[in-house]
Design brief:
Layout (H helix, E strand, L loop, with lengths): L3 E4 L12 H7 L3 E4 H4 L2 E6 L2 E6 L5 E4 L8
């Protein structure tokens, strides 16, 4: 299961994205949406990702054991 999900979507889009089914499949991943969080900046710092949003607190996500990020 994914640990982090980024969804780029416009607020109040006419397509209804993201669907409830997609959101259920992504649970319990750390979820960031541009319609809710604004712009996103993600940078790697050693074994961590620093996630900054336009309108929220900074969050940190530990990469290990996600060896695919090495």
């Amino acid at each position: 299961a994914p640990r982090l999900a980024l969804i780029s979507v416009g607020a109040n889009n006419s397509y209804g994205h993201p669907s409830a089914a997609v959101l259920r499949r992504l649970d319990p991943a750390a979820l960031f949406r541009t319609d809710q969080n604004g712009g996103l900046r993600i940078t790697r710092h050693g074994d961590f990702l620093k996630i900054e949003t336009a309108n929220g607190p900074v969050r940190w996500l530990m990469l290990r054991p996600m060896e695919s990020f090495r």
